[in-house]
Amino acid sequence: MRRAVSVAATVGLVAFTGCTHKYAVPPPWRPVDADSGVGIYVALAEDGRDDGGRVYDQSGRWTSDALANALAGYSASVQRGVRLETVDEARARAAAERSAILVYPKIEHWSDRATEWSGVPDRITLRIRVLSVDAGSELDDRRIRASSRWATFGGDHPQELLPELTERWAASLSSTNGH
């Protein structure tokens, strides 16, 4: 009987831990001095690719939209890029939009797996650079990651990880400057 309870507890623990998404958002390397009156420009990210080079159409738009939505609670003005831009082009556009901060995202990895039968989770890795528009100096540069649960019945996609991942990232910026 004791063995049966032990096995059941182990199976339950494994099943429970497999039912949660995982997020990795390291702390910023220095405070980002932004208050709610500062305008923020979020550049459009290029669509992501998986290990095999497959491009995930619209993943760049989803990423930039999620970042802008996450930042909306911290700024009165969040502008979104509408086309792919280099850092310099995005900084010029941000200046034209009267934004003080540029958020420049890059999708380093995006994989949508058939987790329900393979057990391989969906994964996202984003590099997010935050720059001062006026000075051009880098305020923050981090990689954030998310992976889906491996116990799923299907229908999960990497873009469903974006809201929580980007909210955690935005909150980490604001927690360093008293918001």
Number of domains: 1
Whole-number radius of gyration?
Answer: 19 Å
CATH superfamily: ABC-type transport auxiliary lipoprotein component
- Assigned CATH class: Alpha Beta
Helix/strand order: HEEHEHEHEEH
Mean pLDDT: 82
The major β-sheet equals: 6 strands, mixed
Fold and architecture overview:
The protein has 179 residues and is an alpha/beta fold. It has one domain: ABC-type transport auxiliary lipoprotein component (Rossmann fold, 3-Layer(aba) Sandwich). Helices cover 31% and strands 23% of the residues. The protein contains five helices and six strands, in the order αββαβαβαββα. It has a six-stranded mixed β-sheet, with helices on both faces. Strand 2, helix 2 and strand 3 form a beta-alpha-beta unit. Helix 2 packs parallel to helix 5. About 8% of the residues have low confidence.
Keywords:
six-stranded mixed β-sheet; alpha/beta; globular; 179 residues; Rossmann fold
Question: Could you give a quick summary of the protein structure above?
Answer:
The chain has 179 residues and is α/β, with parallel strands linked by helices. It contains five helices and six strands. It starts with a helix and ends in a 5-residue tail after the last helix.
Record the SSE blueprint.
Layout: H1 2-17, E1 22-24, E2 39-42, H2 59-71, E3 77-80, H3 87-96, E4 101-111, H4 115-118, E5 123-132, E6 138-147, H5 162-174
Parallel strand pairs: 2-3, 2-4
Antiparallel strand pairs: 1-6, 4-5, 5-6
Helix pairs in contact: 2-5
